[in-house]
Write a structure and sequence with these properties.
heterodimer, A: about 500 residues, mainly alpha, 19 helices, about 70% helix, globular, B: about 300 residues, alpha/beta, five-stranded parallel sheet, two-stranded antiparallel ribbon, 11 helices, 7 strands, about 10% strand
């Protein structure tokens, strides 16, 4: 049941109406119970076999949270650290087992074979539970935040389980932090008109970017990647340049729909993107891209590492960033391509660290005509191209494919005798609309946030805009493809 | 909450109204499915030679050259639909002597999903215009608007009709496809890549072959029981596509044909796949014959029918 499907809307309609029934609104607990049931139902449809894993890990971390609280109250620091470490290890073990065990086993066997040990290795071919990377990160952050005494553990199991399994975010994030999300579950949620309308707009915008842009761009990139060894260099370059836009439209589309659904339920979900196409450096790009993941890694990996490597000064920072980016890369999946993707992005940070500009993110300034300044615009283009090249590693099925793709881009004749692919005009127009709105709405939460815009105060104009977007979604939607981030 | 729901209803009601209106209008537009269904319901009793199959046969067989024949083939028509259509008019057949069924490397391995990626809108057409049993009445797949691109195309056709342009059926009065003419030929569709694209549709898994074979057998049994000769015909394929056939799969395909022939003695198999008489200009693309090729092909079939005194 994908969030942009008719079945999801039917499911959500039922959840929504019952959620706001007067007897459920009496207590946040009732609403939480209902949300939890809906979330487990939703997850069981996506991955029925893995419901026990979700429930088991939730229960385990819930108990660990309670024990951790007791140890903190009794000031048993060592025990508290031990429990926290245990929590992190258990969480990581679940991830390693389901996501990386086969990969490490294969890689280990390859290394042994290369030094002359012929071993036969049977991989377990484990099924990756959908959303495991997202909810395990939630659980780990919960235990660390308790240890750091930033939050109190949840006494109410239902409340905690609802946080972990909340259906709009369980499959592909955003990775909500407990200190922001759990307090919302403690209060009664009443229907708020303005929040609900904003949520609807965000869902509509998410549908537009996913169904009209990402799904149509996916047709082109999938075609190119299926036959890349026969295509001209220009086609390979175009496909490489298209991919970051596709993955952004796809993932931002999903995130907007999830956040919109959350708003309709009176819950605020963390922002996942802040117009990353406008990033002027790789650092800025990563500050704006998949923010819930990067913030998680920043808090729990980068900060401790940079403290540990403080003595090495700039090189310590570089070292921490490299580890950080490689972890981000491997978080996406068990493949060396993701490791290289992370390493590549880590390397892009090196000059920024050396020039002391990796942490600075200046506000974007428009020129007199409302456009970006020439220097900013140039930097955005360069950053986009650099990111696009990194995504070749991200999308390639193997490292050899990635390097082959890169070498064909350099060695093949640039222009084909006849075009290998055609990009429909409507798709170009839709992409231009997306990019323009990214720029115009750069200070807004998402590109279709219509609040505080004078011209849109009249309802007829707003409604015309909604209708236009709905018609565009219907007319130009591409063949339905799975959300890219579901596989992570 | 009430205000929110009211506004949602107000926004969506006109949109849904327009959509349903357009759905109705699109249903009224002429199309090959409704045309063929109406034709068969009115003339099935006079048909002596009935042609079934996918686009290969739809393009290849010209019924103008064989008396009392009708081309009931259609683009991407699975054997499942051939089976259904043959049975649909069974009570009306009075003179049916020969059924010509297109079987080839591609359609024998059409994937077994009734609402597949490639032909969802076509599946809908069989349901809507040829009364193919619906899975559920409330399914969205029973409506034209559930496939956005073909629906938008049809709405554009409707708008053209309003502006006074006549809508041309994609087939002639006897069901033969009319758009495979050399004026529209694109040389790029004769190359390997086109063939590769077509062959990507095929699924030679055992379960899928079993599904297609069951319908092939059902057609053969129908012909045997009705004392009708069944001609299984593989239409000519251009070498760029033919060379990409996987030999194991070709063996599986041939095996299926000989199995079904063993089962029913009234079957004749004609293989034109590598026929050297069909040259470059006889093809519209690597997989379909052009008007010229169709003329040549139908003559061959007519001669075989005459020679064997099948009709």
């Amino acid at each position: 049941m994908v969030v942009n499907s008719l079945y999801f809307f039917l499911f959500f309609g039922v959840v929504f109406f019952i959620y706001y029934l007067p007897f459920l609104r009496k207590s946040p607990n009732y609403q939480n119970i209902w949300l939890l049931l809906a979330s487990y139902f939703f997850y069981s449809i996506a991955e029925c076999r893995m419901v026990p894993l979700l429930f088991g890990s939730t229960t385990l971390f819930y108990w660990m949270g309670l024990i951790l609280r007791k140890t903190i109250q009794k000031e048993k620091t060592k025990l508290s650290s031990f429990i926290t470490t245990l929590g992190v290890v258990i969480g990581m073990s679940v991830l390693l087992y389901f996501k990386y065990l086969d990969f490490f086993a294969d890689s280990f066997a390859t290394v042994l074979r290369s030094v002359g040990f012929n071993i036969s290795w049977t991989t377990l071919n484990l099924v990756l539970p959908i959303g495991v990377s997202f909810y395990i990160f939630k659980l780990i952050s919960y235990i660390i935040e308790i240890h750091r005494e930033h939050i109190e553990p949840s006494i109410d199991f239902i409340e905690f389980a609802t946080y972990v399994a909340f259906f709009p975010t369980i499959l592909a994030g955003p990775i909500d932090r407990p200190n922001k999300f759990i307090p919302q579950l403690k209060k009664n949620r009443y229907f708020k008109y303005s929040l609900a309308i904003d949520g609807c707009r965000q869902i509509l915008w998410g549908m537009f970017t996913k169904m009209c842009i990402a799904d149509n761009l996916a047709i082109i990139t999938n075609t190119v990647w299926a036959d890349y060894d026969t295509l001209s260099a220009s086609t390979l370059v175009v496909a490489a340049l298209i991919y970051p836009l596709e993955i952004y439209a796809d993932f931002d589309g999903y995130s907007n729909m999830a956040i919109g659904v959350g708003k309709l339920l009176g819950l605020k979900i963390s922002k996942n993107f802040n117009h990353p196409l406008l990033g002027r450096t790789t650092a800025e790009y990563w500050h704006r891209w998949h923010m819930s993941l990067t913030a998680w890694i920043l808090d729990y990996v980068f900060m401790p590492l940079s403290i540990a490597f403080m003595n090495l000064r700039k090189w310590g920072v570089i070292f921490a960033i490299m580890i950080n980016m490689i972890i981000i890369g491997f978080w996406h999946g068990a493949n060396w391509t993701y490791g290289l993707f992370g390493l590549y992005h880590g390397l892009l940070f090196v000059p920024l660290v050396l020039w002391n500009s990796y942490g600075k993110s200046k506000h974007l300034i428009t020129n007199g005509k409302g456009l970006p300044r020439a220097k900013d615009f140039f930097m955005m283009i360069v950053t986009y191209i650099l990111v696009a090249f990194g995504h070749i590693f991200f999308v390639a099925p193997s490292t050899s494919d990635a390097f082959m793709y890169l070498s064909l881009m350099m060695n093949r004749s640039f222009f084909p005798s006849s075009p290998d692919i055609t990009i429909p005009l409507y798709l170009i127009v839709l992409c231009v609309i997306l990019i323009l709105l990214e720029w115009i709405m750069k200070d807004k939460e998402y590109s279709f946030e219509l609040t505080n815009i004078k011209i849109l105060e009249k309802r007829i104009i707003r409604w015309s805009l909604y209708t236009t977007l709905l018609v565009l979604v219907y007319v130009f939607q591409g063949e339905h493809t799975e959300f890219i981030y579901f596989q992570f | 909450m009430k205000c929110f729901l009211c506004r949602i209803v107000k926004l969506f009601t006109p949109l849904i109204g327009v959509l349903l209106g357009l759905e109705y209008v699109v249903h009224q537009l002429p199309n090959s499915y409704s045309y063929k269904d109406v034709w068969m319901r009115n003339h099935a009793d006079s048909v002596m030679v009935l042609v079934l199959g996918s686009s290969n046969m739809y393009a290849a067989f010209n019924p103008q050259l064989v008396v009392h024949s009708f081309n009931l083939a259609n683009s991407f028509q699975r054997l499942e639909y051939d089976d259904y259509l043959l049975n649909r008019y069974a009570s009306q057949y009075r003179n049916l002597k020969v059924v010509i069924l297109g079987v080839d490397y591609v359609n024998i391995a059409f994937p077994n999903n009734s609402v597949g990626v490639y032909d969802r809108h076509r599946s809908i057409s069989y349901k809507l215009y040829m009364e193919y049993p619906k899975q559920t009445y409330c399914s969205i797949n029973n409506y034209e608007f559930s496939c956005n691109k073909p629906f938008v195309k049809k709405v554009c056709m409707f708008l053209q009709q309003i502006m006074g342009n006549e809508i041309e059926l994609p087939c002639d009065s006897l069901g033969h496809a009319i758009y495979y003419n050399l004026n529209g030929k694109n040389d790029e569709n004769m190359n390997e890549r086109y063939g590769e694209k077509i062959l990507r549709i095929t699924d030679y898994s055992n379960s899928n072959l079993k599904y297609n074979y069951s319908h092939l057998l059902s057609i053969a049994n129908f012909c045997k029981d009705s004392n009708v000769k069944l001609l299984l015909v593989s239409t000519p394929i251009w070498k760029t596509m033919r060379n990409q056939f996987v030999s194991d799969n070709v063996t599986k395909f041939k095996g299926m044909i000989s199995d079904v022939m063993k089962h029913c003695p009234n079957i004749m198999y004609l293989d034109f796949t590598e026929d050297p008489r069909f040259t470059y200009n006889d093809f519209y693309d690597a997989n379909h014959l052009s008007e010229n090729g169709s003329w040549k092909f139908t003559k061959q079939i007519a001669n075989i029918i005459d020679y064997n005194k099948l009709n």
